[in-house]
Specification:
55% of the residues lie in helices and 10% in strands. It is α/β, with parallel strands linked by helices. The chain has two domains: 130 residues, no CATH class; 105 residues, 3-Layer(aba) Sandwich (Rossmann fold), CATH 3.40.50.720. It is elongated. The relative contact order is 0.10.
Length: 255
């Protein structure tokens, strides 16, 4: 097991880790924002603002993050919806702080540039931390980062195939190594780092060219919108090549 592999934490432990992490990032973002605004020579009155005002801003941000569900998601799972919720939570607090800047005298003494920088740096810092946990999980794959597991080819480089590849990349037992798709415009491209190597018929060509064979242990057909005739052609080809295969019309079949 890799020392970088994320540990299994209880709900309470995960909350504590995220609380400390989020607070550290928020505090660092504020100090860096002031440093950038004042060329890292922060006047004493603005240092006082950090101690008297920003500590409350951090508390409000933590509350907003909790409302947005950012304390109860798994550490190593971070997706676009999570990123949106993170941005929304921090954005609401930043906009509220601007409103207070106009309404409250003590807040009005704060630098508007710092408020903007703090909002940006807070978002980038928290997103980077969550993304880091996800990259560690994907990098280890439960096996210390070694490239092991069943080598899987995915037939169908559409939404279902892409989602399937992303899910398999988090597994220890199945490793997507190549896509096949009938759409010529996708040939030579990559999806989540997995190459699209033309149509599935290229498997036959690869088998006949031993020096350039595609090493595939299993094939998953992920093209729910394909005509039945085409699916039967693919199944016949895979049977001819002696490759184990399964058809996945939906992600639920891999659960």
């Amino acid at each position: 097991m890799s020392i970088l592999q994320p540990p299994n934490l209880s709900r309470g432990q995960r909350f504590a880790v995220l609380l400390v992490l989020y607070l550290a990032v928020l505090a660092a973002a504020t100090w860096v924002a002031y440093g950038l605004r004042f060329d890292f020579d922060v006047p004493s009155d603005h240092q006082r603002h950090i101690k008297e005002i920003w500590v409350w801003v951090w508390a409000v941000k933590l509350l907003a993050l909790a409302v947005a569900g950012q304390f109860y998601s798994l550490l190593s799972f971070f997706s676009l919806p999570d990123l949106k919720r993170l941005g929304l939570a921090l954005g609401v607090v930043t906009l509220g702080l601007f409103g207070q800047w106009y309404a409250v005298d003590s807040v009005g003494e704060m630098s508007r540039g710092v408020i903007v920088l703090d909002g940006i740096l807070s978002f980038l810092g928290l997103a980077a931390c969550r993304l880091g946990f996800r990259l560690v999980r994907q990098g280890t794959g439960g096996n210390g980062g070694r490239q092991v597991g069943t080598r899987v080819a995915i037939v169908g480089a559409g939404e279902v195939g892409a989602a399937l590849a992303r899910e398999l990349q988090t597994k220890a037992t199945l490793r997507p190594v190549v896509f096949f798709d009938d759409a010529q415009r996708k040939h030579g491209t990559q999806i989540h780092g997995v190459p699209v190597a033309g149509t599935v018929e290229n498997l036959r060509k690869s088998k006949s060219n031993e020096g350039n064979a595609l090493e595939v242990d299993e094939v998953i057909i992920a093209m729910p919108s394909a005509p039945g005739a085409r699916v039967r052609e693919v199944l016949a080809l895979l049977d001819e090549l002696g490759l184990c295969c399964r058809t996945v019309p939906s992600m639920s079949q891999l659960a």
